[in-house]
Design goal:
Blueprint: H1 2-8, H2 11-17, H3 43-62, E1 68-70, H4 76-88, E2 92-97, H5 118-122, H6 131-143, E3 155-160, H7 165-168, E4 174-177, H8 178-199, E5 204-210, H9 232-247, E6 254-261, H10 272-284, E7 287-288, E8 291-292
The structure holds manganese (II) ion.
Residues 74, 98, 100, 102, 115, 210, 262 line the site of manganese (II) ion (MN).
């Protein structure tokens, strides 16, 4: 339902008006939620989606087009990012804008929700679990290859405010919390990101945007809302500065792809979260108050 809400909020039209050549590939076929006894929640439908998304994203990248993925459960990020890792190799870095860090393994997760595990899967962490769950996790990791794993040292987190104890020691890259944003602001924290990308020699950046990074007052349409998130202006400034940075000739790092996830219209108010998502994507791709960058 998330992609439908975002289409309904006018994504294609807004991007087309910015002069972008948009091709909507439509929804990927997906099967109804189901969980095998003793296994990961909704494992088979998610595995199928991740595989299809990996293939589709590879095709898009091979055609020299730019992938924009709309979700859905945050595990879909694993499909897109694994394709980008195969395409771009180890020059790729990931920016994870989210209230959560999503680096739980099946064994460390309190909820068993796959949406809290995409970075653990992408970086090939062991399941820390037994039996059916361990077998399914190995199948998922297999489906994300062949190709390099994501190094958590090449991952930056932004706007995080709800991090499980087991996840803390896994944040090997750059962790910018809501506290850092309160204390130093968006401009300074984006400069740290830029310096960090330079220090690790990143040439491509994949941006994964979970709508729960925004404050739930603005973006109520999501499953795991955490109060104290990005304000409307902070979220837009962040998108605008990212656009500036990724188009700056003096900066070698370019945008590899985007996923925007976890919109759930069933708990939204008047589709306001999907409308915010469309506005945010437009800012990231160059829309400014007085026009468009290109
Ligand atoms: Mn997430």
């Amino acid at each position: 339902l998330g992609p439908a809400a975002i289409r309904y909020a006018g994504l294609e039209d807004v991007l087309a008006k910015m002069g972008l050549d948009v091709r909507d590939r439509g929804d990927l076929p997906h099967t109804a939620p189901n969980t095998m006894e003793g296994g990961l929640k909704n494992f088979l439908p998610m595995l199928d989606t991740v595989k299809r998304l990996r293939e589709t994203t590879s095709e898009t990248l091979n055609e020299n087009r730019f992938p924009l993925i709309i979700g859905g459960d945050h595990m879909v990020a694993a499909g897109g990012i694994s394709a980008a890792l195969t395409h771009y190799g180890e020059g790729l870095a990931v920016l994870w804008i989210d209230a959560h860090t999503d680096v739980n393994t099946p064994g460390s997760s309190d909820t068993g929700n796959l949406h809290g595990m995409p970075l653990a899967a992408l970086s090939g962490l062991p399941s820390e679990a037994q039996g059916q769950v361990d077998t399914e996790w190995a199948t998922l990791l297999d489906a994300l290859g062949p190709g390099p794993c994501l190094s958590l040292e090449r991952t930056a987190w932004y706007a995080i405010r709800d991090v499980d104890v087991a996840e803390r020691s896994r944040l090997a890259g750059l962790a910018l919390t809501m506290h850092d944003i309160d204390r130093h602001g968006v401009v300074a924290t984006m400069s740290s990101l830029r310096e960090w990308l330079k220090a690790i020699g990143a040439t491509r950046l994949w941006i994964s945007f979970d709508v729960d990074s925004m404050d739930p007052i603005l973006a109520p349409g999501t499953g795991t809302a955490v109060r104290g998130g990005l304000s409307y202006r902070e979220a837009h400034l962040c998108a605008e500065l990212l656009c500036e940075m990724l188009e700056d000739e003096n900066n070698p790092c370019r945008l590899a792809g985007i996923d925007v996830v976890e919109t759930n219209p069933l708990v939204d108010h008047n589709n306001s979260t999907a409308v915010m998502v469309v506005e945010w994507i437009a800012s990231l791709l160059g829309k400014t108050i007085l026009g468009t960058r290109r």
